[in-house]
Design a protein that fits this description.
heterodimer; A: mainly alpha; B: mainly alpha; 79% helix
Chain lengths: 226, 244
């Protein structure tokens, strides 16, 4: 059977979405983790809303980074364990396409969920509603970029037994520019300064990783699969 | 056409070349570093603003430069090894990583020691020091990825790829950290203004820089010998090399 590139892409994305919606607990866990981490900060720091508001963008972004990392480990793992990944690699569709589809689907279920949950957390942290658009836009761009960076890390560590900590160790330093611009954009929106500069940077980083990371992730996966 | 290249990159040849080059590198490093230290710490005039505290630049700046230089040579060696499947490239990358991490650590330590008299605190989240810290994290990532694989060849290739990805990211991280500092206004750090240095200060610095690079060459040659022996421990020439 001959399957076109776009069709194959859609099929893999559909399969991934189908698999993740069959396990709603795994879908919710990163979100709950996100909520718990953001709860930790007010408990550990102070209840003064003014102080919280100053820290809110950073807290929100750190929590988002950590919870996306949590789910990255599973990006290729289960498929590599039961051999599906090798079958997909042998399907004649090109591994890069599979990687792109899987990563995109991963972003759809984790990144978009984080973006949708962020207004609730933001309200609790005292971020004014006027900054929500910027915050959600920056989180959307940031989580997509992080999914790409994470795909490289997940590809490298998929064959390892205890790859989870190593994955964070590899991906977090690479993700630091995201934190700077993402939290920066939100920070500016809160204080009423135009956040376009930081958003443009985030978008540029996103386009940059979208174009290069799939190839790096493919090479990483090949190294692990061989 | 490529045969000479592969011959050059054969383990016994690399081992012998490293053994032959190491003393030369070490000797010239000793001379240049000795000149740089004496001229920089004793003969160079004290800075008109920073007094004698500026002299830590003679260790700090070369190690910061070397931290980047070693990272890029590690990434290039890894890329060569990945693309042309030259095993010795991995050996060079593996031997380089701990050296580069040490230079990064040295740059961080001297930087914060410098910060104490200049900024009044050891750590002021100065953008250059912060990106140096992130560079250290990148080194740690590469160094911990390699031994995580049971199959050493696989670990080599994974580490090489991570090194390349990191090398692409180093400039991004560097500039975004600089930008980040401009976002966080206030607490303006006393910038180490760089008026054109007089020759009596600059010459020792350049000498130290050259000396540090030669020192890297020397340590690389020594570590490379160990690395090659360990990797080729099953080979016949290793047994002969150790016996003789």
């Amino acid at each position: 059977m001959n399957v076109g590139t776009l069709e194959a892409f859609a099929l893999v994305v559909r399969r991934e979405l189908c698999l993740s919606f069959r396990r709603p607990d795994q879908l919710l866990q990163p979100l709950v983790f996100f909520l718990i981490v953001t709860t930790l900060f007010p408990l550990g720091l102070s209840l003064q809303l003014s102080l919280l508001r100053d820290m809110a963008p950073g807290v929100l972004w750190v929590a988002a980074l950590l919870s996306s990392l949590l789910s990255l480990d599973a990006l290729f793992k289960s498929d590599a364990d039961d051999g599906t990944l090798e079958q997909l690699a042998l399907s004649g569709q090109g591994l890069t396409l599979i990687v792109v589809a899987k990563t995109f689907a991963h972003w759809l279920v984790t990144g978009v969920a984080l973006v949708l949950a962020s207004p609730v957390v933001a309200t609790a942290l005292g971020i004014p509603g006027s900054a929500f658009t910027t915050m959600m836009l920056s989180l959307g761009l940031g989580t997509l970029t992080l999914s790409w960076l994470g795909a490289i890390g997940a590809g490298l560590t998929v064959g390892l037994r205890r790859g989870n900590v190593l994955l964070s160790l590899i991906v977090l330093p690479l993700a630091m520019p995201l934190l700077i611009f993402g939290a920066g954009a939100t920070d500016r929106a809160i204080s009423g300064v135009s956040p376009t500069g930081a958003l443009y940077f985030l978008a540029a980083l996103c386009v940059f990783t979208c174009t290069l990371a799939p190839f790096a992730a493919t090479v990483a996966l090949r190294i692990s699969l061989e | 056409m490529w045969t000479w290249f592969y011959k050059l990159a054969s383990p016994p040849h690399v081992y012998r070349a490293a053994a032959a080059l190491a003393p030369w590198f070490l000797g010239s490093a000793a001379i240049t570093i000795a000149y740089g230290l004496v001229a920089g710490l004793v003969f160079a005039p004290p800075d008109y603003q920073q007094g004698d505290a500026f002299r830590i630049i003679y260790v700090h700046a070369p190690s910061a430069w070397l931290s980047l230089f070693v990272y890029s040579s590690m990434a290039i060696a890894g890329a060569i090894a990945l693309i042309w499947r030259i095993k010795m490239g991995h050996a060079v990358a593996a031997a380089s990583a701990p050296i580069g991490a040490s230079f990064t650590l040295l740059a961080l330590v001297t930087g914060s020691l410098w910060g104490r008299p200049m900024w009044g605190t050891y750590w002021a989240w100065d953008p250059r020091l912060t990106s140096e810290l992130i560079l250290l994290f990148l080194y740690v990532g590469v160094m911990s990825l390699r031994p995580a694989f049971e199959d050493p060849a696989r670990g080599d290739r994974a580490a090489a790829l991570l090194g390349i990805v990191g090398a692409v990211n180093v400039p991004i991280i560097h500039y975004s950290v600089q930008w980040w500092n401009s976002l966080h206004q206030g607490a303006t750090v006393a910038k180490l203004g760089k008026p054109s240095m007089p020759g009596s200060m600059l010459l020792p610095l350049l000498s130290m820089l050259l000396g540090f690079m030669l020192f890297y060459g020397a340590v690389l040659c020594m570590r490379l010998q160990g690395e090659v022996l360990n990797r080729e421990r099953q080979a016949k020439w290793v047994r002969e090399a150790i016996k003789s």
